[in-house]
Structures are given as structure tokens and as C-alpha cells.
Amino acid sequence: MSKEKSKLKKSKQDEKQKNDRNKEMNEGWVIFCDFHEITHTVIKEATVTIMRQDNKKMELQMSSRSEALSFAALVDGYFRLIVDAHHYLCKEVAPASVVHNIETGCHGPICTEYATQKLRQEGNDEGIYILRWSCTDYNYIIITVVCFETEIVNGPNKIRQYKNFQIEVDSDGFRLYGTDTLRPTLKELLEHLERQCLHTDNVQFQLRRCCPPQPRGKQTNKQRIQFILFI
Q1: C-alpha distances in angstroms, 149 versus 110, 153, 202, 204, 225?
Q2: What's the pTM?
Q3: What is the secondary structure of 19-78 as a DSSP string?
Q4: Which three-class secondary structure state does DSSP give residue 114?
Q5: Who's near 221: CB < 8 A, 6+ residues apart?
Q6: How far is 43 from 46, CA to CA, in rounded Å?
Q7: Which residues contact 113 (CB under 8 A, 6 or more apart)?
Q8: Which of 55, 57, 89, 115 could form a disulfide with 41 if both were Cys (CB 3.0 to 4.6 A apart)?
Q9: Given this model, what pLDDT does residue 3 score?
Q10: Phi-psi region of 96 (alpha: psi -120 to 50; beta: other; left: phi over 0)
């Protein structure tokens, strides 16, 4: 009975969406695509071109280049909000923080619980780690890493743990908190740390593999936010 109700509800939703589209067509609005169908946007002078997955495109002639940049930035922002927070459609208007995170494999400000859950999904192997911006202090990037502590009570026994290390971000570069290890870029600092044997408390380990943000798959509910052209 519940399955039949679910099918009936879905059928009604599909019918409503179809009617909404027909209504928009009758009112002179033409739907271009859903946000998840967009691959990238291109800005040339005052023209914005929006490309779809099927290689079809929509060109919009704006009144000025600044207006074109503003419109492209709006589309870019909505795409990250709706489809994929770790992707940009046009580098010209993408926030510098988003570009930096993609290039370095760094997550945004996520909590420790979410970070450890992602590490479990990635295999939970010793030495895999996640880079993430601090939720409380935006001058710090946190490394959350999987490591094992050897317990000798009742015989040798390895206990999996998740350790957090802070990277301080300032005008001089990136510094492992509490040390003199400073590098001009995050990439250079990580390359240095991955060659070192790190230790804290009774735990000794190496950084082996970074788990960057993964592109989000297509939305299952396909939010009905679309581009429309008035003709």
C-alpha cells in the first residue's frame, strides 16, 4: 500500500512539473536546462555563453562586460549551492578560496565527525588524511589523519585513532602549528610532511594519501531550478 501511495505521489509531482513547463511555454518562457546539466560558462566581452552536457549552448548579450561578469558569477554561485559545492563553471568569476581548495584538495569548513566519516568511506587505512578549513578560526587548516596506537596491555593490540593537526595560514605562508616548519604554499608544506615520520602522544605515522572533495553526483530529486528565456 505504501509503495502504491509513493508511486501515486511521484506521478502527481511529475504531472505538476509537466503542467508548469507547459504553462511557462504558453506564457512565452522557454526553459533552457536544469543546473545539473551545465558543464561550463564562457565570458567574451559582454557575452555569456552557457554550455550544456549535450553541447547545446545559450548565449546572452549583456549591456557591458561588468554585467556579464555579474551574471556569470550569479550562475556560478547557484551551481555550487545546488549541484556541487566543490566545482566552478568559470574561473574568471570563481572565488579565490574555491579555486585554491580545488587545486590543493582541501575541503571547506567541515566538522571532525564529518571528516572521520569521509575517512571511513575512503577505506580508513593508516595514513590517509583529509584537509579541511577550521569551522571556528579561518586562519587554520586542519589535517585529520587515520593512525593506529599500539596498546600493550593484555598483549599488543592496534587501536585506530583520528588525530587532528593544525596548519596556520598567514602572510608568510603555511606553518605546521607548534613547529618551525613553514612553506610558501600548502602544496609544498604537504610534500615536506609526507616525507616525514610524524608523531604525537604514543602514535607515530606518515601522511600517505589525501582524500580531496569528490564531485557530487547528479541530484536524485532534480531540483526544478532552471534557466528560462523570455521570447
Answers
A1: 25, 12, 6, 8, 49
A2: 0.66
A3: HHHHHHHHTTEEEEEEGGGEEEEEEETTEEEEEETTS-EEEEE-SSHHHHHHHHHHHHHH
A4: helix
A5: none
A6: 7
A7: none
A8: 89
A9: 52
A10: alpha
In the numeric block, which cell numbers belong to residue 126? 593508516
Record the cell numbers describing residue 163, joined without a space: 588525530
Phi, psi of 97 (to 5 degrees): -65, -35
The single residue listed with the C-alpha cell 616548519 is 181
| Residue owning grid cell 606553518 | 175
Scored b (16 or more CB within 10 A) or e, 175-202 reads: bbeeeeeebeebeebbeebeeeebeeee
- Residues of the chain whose pLDDT is less than 70? 1-28, 150-156, 215-231
Measure the CA–CA gap between 209 and 156, rounded to whole angstroms: 26
Under a CB-based contact definition with an 8 Å cutoff, are residues 107 and 216 in contact? no
Rounded distance, CA 138 to CA 155, Å? Answer: 43
Does residue 163 contact residue 112 with C-beta atoms inside 8 Å? no
For the record, the C-alpha cell of 70 comes out as 555579474
229 near 58, Cβ under 8 Å? yes
pLDDT score recorded for residue 7: 58
Number of CB atoms found within 10 A of residue 166's CB:
16
Q: Which residues have C-beta within 8 Å of that of residue 181, sequence separation ≥ 6?
A: 175, 189, 192, 193
Predicted local confidence at residue 75, as pLDDT = 92
Q: How far apart are CA 162 and CA 114, in angstroms?
A: 12
User: Looking at residue 222, what is its pLDDT?
Assistant: 42
Residue 157, phi then psi, degrees to nearest 5: -150, 125
Whole-number pLDDT of residue 16: 64
